[in-house]
Amino acid sequence: MYKIFDTHAHYDDEQFDIDRDELLNSMVAAGIEHVVNMGASMDGCRDTLELIKQYPFMYGAIGIHPDEVGELTDEDYKWLESNCTAEKIVAIGEIGLDYYWDTVDHATQKEWFVRQMNLAREKKLPIVVHSRDAAADTYDIMKAEHAGDIGGVVHCYSYTKEMARQFMEMDFYFGFGGVLTFSNAKKAKEAAEYIPMNRIVIETDAPYLSPVPNRGKRNSSLNLPYVIKTLAEIKGLSEEEICNQTYENALRLYRIQK
Ligand code: NI
Considering the domain boundaries, does residue 258 fall inside one? Predict the structure, then answer.
């Protein structure tokens, strides 16, 4: 059995309320060595801090998702600032721009993206970038803010390979998950083929984006072997090589010393 690193999940989500403890306790025996639980809302960040205290194999990220930044206050920012240095917090995320759901006006999304990026810079943490239907603005802001000096990952990468080249110039990593197994995910497959193996990490985004054959159901890290198998086919490598390389990449991305 290989070592698997899930670089992005939301186990604080209420969909896990019925069996969270049982599920998380089954992870290590299934080869899931580490999971990074993402902050997305203020409540999600507080829950993340609790989860990583409870489960030794879990790390966490503190940050606010673009859909959730509409009501943020300076008080909230101060809370993020003082809690992102907690033990086992390895990134600022997920942060970015979402023009698909478009729940918050673009100026406010951009303001909090930049603000949280600067928090990451100040605390020397990488960023986890969420970007949907906002490739050009995401890239322009990251370029203007010198995100290459901060480092991090573009999660659930689903833009073109040309765009990938630009994020690669900033030394960013790329997260691939369930979407890669969808038959209509032509762009994601092309990007995964193009991006060098030392820049790829795997993720679930659980409870969302379950891979085929469990598409549409609640996702968990236990589904990652389907993503690994697909990536192995795309790259022409063995599943073991995919696991080892993405595991090493995840440690490097999150600057975890083992
Ligand atoms: Ni997410």
Answer: no
Q: Taking 70 as the threshold, does the pLDDT of residue 1 lie above it?
A: no
CA of 209 to the centre of ligand 1 (A): 10
Residue 60, beta-bridge partner list = 37, 89
Q: What's the 241 CA to ligand 1 centre distance in angstroms?
A: 26
The answer as to whether 55 is a domain residue is: yes
Of 90, 91, 110, 89, nearest to 99 (Cα)?
Answer: 110
Query: Given this model, what pLDDT does residue 182 score?
Result: 96
Q: Output the CA 151–ligand 1 centroid distance in Å.
A: 18
Residue 224 lies in a domain: yes
- Helix H or strand E segment including 225: helix 224-235
Domain count, the chain: 1
Full domain range(s) for residue 55: 4-253
What tens digit of pLDDT does each residue of 140-172 get?
Answer: 999 999 999 999 999 999 999 999 999 999 999
How far is ligand 1, taken at its centre, from the CA of residue 125, in Å?
Answer: 18
- Ligand 1 centroid to Cα of residue 146, in Å, is 23
Kind plus residue range of the DSSP H or E element containing 95:
strand 89-98
Closest CA to 244 of 202, 190, 193, 205: 202
CATH code of the domain covering residue 40: 3.20.20.140
9 CA distance to ligand 1 middle (Å) = 6
95 Cα–ligand 1 center, Å: 9
